[in-house]
Specification:
heterodimer; A: alpha/beta; Rossmann fold; 6-stranded mixed beta sheet; 4-stranded antiparallel beta sheet; 10 strands; 40% helix; B: mainly alpha; ABC transporter involved in vitamin B12 uptake, BtuC
């Protein structure tokens, strides 16, 4: 579904992504792991259009999507979430979700004045959909809360909810589990698996929590120093010599993460 | 001691002028704050854009006057206003397409965009002086007073008079209507919400499928309307002179920063804070004090804290205090 071909991203002399090539299969939940600074988030940013690659190509369903703007990728069904959850802090959770589908009637200035009924109908439908999504994510009770005031984990759920407002094809999740407690993490994992099974979303997940990866991801791709080291099931990755070296080689403090 | 006359004098020389000036500043500061919130730079060309918009309105007003079109007791400029806004909007979108968009695509730092806006400012400055000249222009017509000093004295029998000029009344009414429309737009319409979303979190807005070019275009349209209205009201109330409009940049920025950059409510509050401070500090309080205090305490001096020539020092002083002690402003905008 997504093919990344020899991708480079340099920030000055620093090669954050240094010739990464990988393939993401349709309908999979692919895990992306690697020590801190391996270039996982940069890879996400390049694929999602936040950064332009220095060189290399990104293909989606055989179409070249290298260097497209984020909102253009959004229309192709490629969505992402952030390592640190982003939200429109002054809007309610429901409004946050209702922001999402692009091309709403209310966007045209003309309709703002002369298409009131169309807008009202559309908003009603959106509102119902947003409520449904909140229900699915078990955060219905937060619908009218300001998104800036809910907890970090709930914001992560809200981010996931945003991807459900449209028919996404592929969703990139950047550390969904960071700073989220166990119970909420299970909710997130369930939601991901259900979306994958019921709606056919393809997921790519960056995560440091190996239990979480092991539970939902297959295959798992391991990156280090801007390159793809290995790909396989989590068990295979854990047994891979190069992977162990990459984790231990960057400092012993990462040792517990692989264990 | 005569408290009633003291209050009438106070209202006539401080409260009402402050209210009118505050409304004009609020509209100007709203423009500054919208550009800062959505395009993320301080638009130094704002004052000269306002001069351009007002110039457009003045030229159209003169044309209407020559055709014999009048609005009765209201100034003809109000009729010319929509056309002036359209011209200014066209110019601003042209500027954005030819100048700002280039730097936006390159994802330039805000400081570079500030410098770019400085260049736009000089060009606008030149264009306005080239077309209408650097001198004072008066374009107010219609009824001058809603309540003149004499009518008020006859009505109340007071010694002091409270004169309400038509331009003052128009300023306040227009400002209220414009602000109400703007807030309705920002809070209730999809486009307005996209603008708020874009201002709140640009990355997320982009990843929610919001088209940044649309948001930017709508922002320029709104800013064109706000500046042209603010400039025309200021010109009707006082007079139009390109250099004065350029100088208004300081109180605009002071107002936007005092309220919290990027926050529309803050810009309005900031506008009134700056306006009332300026008016109270530069007003000679002798008359009010003479009425308010017992005769034995009547002042000999003018009781003027600062000459009106130095009125910009007030904005500057407030700006410094806010930046030192509360850089995010009264309403928690973005820090500068």
């Amino acid at each position: 579904m997504i093919v990344v071909d020899d991708l480079h991203k340099h920030f000055g002399g620093f090669h954050a992504v240094d010739g990464a090539s990988l393939e993401i299969r349709k309908g999979s939940i692919t895990g992306l792991i690697g020590p801190n600074g391996a270039g996982k988030t940069t890879l996400f940013n390049v694929i999602a259009g936040v950064h332009k690659p220095t060189s290399g190509r990104v293909m989606m369903d055989g179409e070249d999507i290298t260097g497209l703007e984020p909102h253009e990728l959004f229309h192709k069904g490629l969505l992402r979430t952030f390592q640190i959850a982003h939200e429109f802090s002054s809007m309610s959770c429901r409004e946050n979700l209702m922001m999402v589908p692009a091309g709403q009637a209310g966007e045209a200035l003309w309709n703002t004045w002369f298409g009131r009924k169309r807008i009202a109908d559309e908003e009603r439908a959106l509102r119902a959909k947003a409520d449904e999504v909140l229900e699915f994510l078990t955060i219905s009770h937060l619908a009218d809360h300001k998104a800036g005031q809910i907890s970090g984990g709930q914001k992560k759920l809200l981010e996931l909810g945003r991807t459900m407002m449209v028919d996404a094809k592929i969703v990139f999740l950047d550390e969904v589990g960071a700073g989220v407690n166990r119970t909420l993490l299970n909710t997130i994992a369930d939601a991901i698996v259900r979306l994958n099974k019921e709606r056919g979303y393809t997921f790519v997940v960056i995560e440091h929590d190996m239990d979480f990866i092991g539970r939902i991801c297959d295959p798992v791709i391991c990156m280090a120093e801007g390159k793809v080291l290995a790909e396989g099931t989590l068990a295979e990755i854990k047994a891979n010599e190069q992977v162990i070296e990459a984790y231990l080689g960057t400092g012993l403090k990462n040792k517990d993460k692989i264990a | 001691m005569d408290l009633l006359n003291a209050f009438v004098a106070l209202a006539n020389f401080v409260l009402i002028p402050g209210l009118a000036y505050g409304s004009q500043l609020a509209l100007g500061a709203l423009g500054v704050t919208l550009v800062y919130g959505i395009l993320r730079f301080s638009n130094f060309a704002h004052g000269d854009t306002m001069a351009f918009g007002t110039m457009a309105v003045i030229l159209i007003t003169w044309w209407f006057q020559s055709l014999g079109i009048h609005l009765g007791p209201l100034p003809t400029a109000l009729l010319a206003l929509p056309f002036g806004i359209a011209v200014t909007a066209a110019v601003m979108i042209f500027t954005d397409r030819t100048v700002y968009r280039f730097y936006r695509k390159k994802k330039s730092d805000p400081v570079i965009l500030v410098m770019v806006s400085l260049g736009v400012m000089f060009i606008m400055n030149g264009i306005v002086r080239f077309i209408i000249g650097p001198d004072d222009q008066s374009f107010a017509d219609g009824e001058r007073f809603l309540i003149s000093a004499r009518t008020f004295k006859q009505m109340t029998g007071q010694q002091e008079a409270l004169a309400i000029r038509t331009s003052t009344a128009i300023t306040v009414v227009t400002a209220i209507l414009v602000v109400a429309a703007l807030f309705w737009f920002l809070n209730k319409t999809r486009t307005g919400k996209s603008m708020r979303a874009f201002s709140d979190n640009e990355d997320l807005a982009l990843l929610s499928g919001i088209n940044p070019e649309r948001v930017v275009m709508v922002t320029w349209l709104i800013v064109a309307a706000l500046t042209t209205i603010a400039g025309t009201l200021y010109g009707l109330d006082k007079s139009f002179k390109p250099f004065t409009y350029f100088q208004l940049l300081l109180p605009f920025f002071a107002a936007a920063i005092v309220g919290g950059l990027g926050n529309p409510v803050g810009a309005i509050a900031g506008g009134f804070v700056i306006a009332f401070s300026e008016v109270t500090v530069t007003y000679a309080w002798k008359k009010v004090a003479t009425y308010a205090l017992p005769d034995s305490m009547a002042p000999n001096s003018l009781l003027q804290l600062l000459s009106t020539d130095y009125k910009f020092a007030v904005s500057f002083g407030i700006l410094l205090i806010v930046l030192l002690f509360k850089p995010t402003g009264l309403f928690q905008g973005k820090s500068v």
